[in-house]
Amino acid sequence: MWRKEDGSPQPPEGIGSTAGKAGSTGMSVSPNAAACVSQGIKIKGELTGSEDLFIDGVVDGKVTLTNSTLTVGPNATVKAEIIAKELVVRGRAEGKFTASERVQIWHTAHVEGDIKSDRISIEEGAEMHGRLEAGKPLATASTGASGQSGKKSEKSKDTGASEEKATSGAASAGAD
Prior knowledge:
Blueprint: E1 35-37, E2 42-48, E3 53-55, E4 58-72, E5 77-89, E6 92-105, E7 110-122, E8 127-129, E9 132-134, H1 141-159, H2 162-175
Parallel strand pairs: 1-3, 2-4, 3-4, 4-5, 5-6, 6-7, 7-8, 7-9
């Protein structure tokens, strides 16, 4: 939008959760506002950055925001390897996703791929196909796992499903 009085652009409202209001003084968006790849924009390649990013267009490649939040909007189609501090998926996403702190998958999301994060939340109604790995690895896991791996393989030979249950239990226990 443009203000008629002075011809200067006004920031769009609601792009990021931390976007500042323009108000009557004509102040610009706060430096913490999310960058935006809007609907109708297609990017193929590698995106890196140090600020929050909102994608509502098409991205194919790799996105690295190690200290920031990436939001895949409801109109987005993303096929990428994503590395971020936080990941919020509201649209379509396919690939390998790693978030150091948290992943949120909204009920409007369609996700295909592998997700790894300290915390993962999936709303009812979301569509998810792939692997989930949640929680921090235990400090004693490297010493204890080698002693237990033989036991798990023995159990999996007998029952076939014990190994899957053990993996799922570790993921849910780590998420608390």
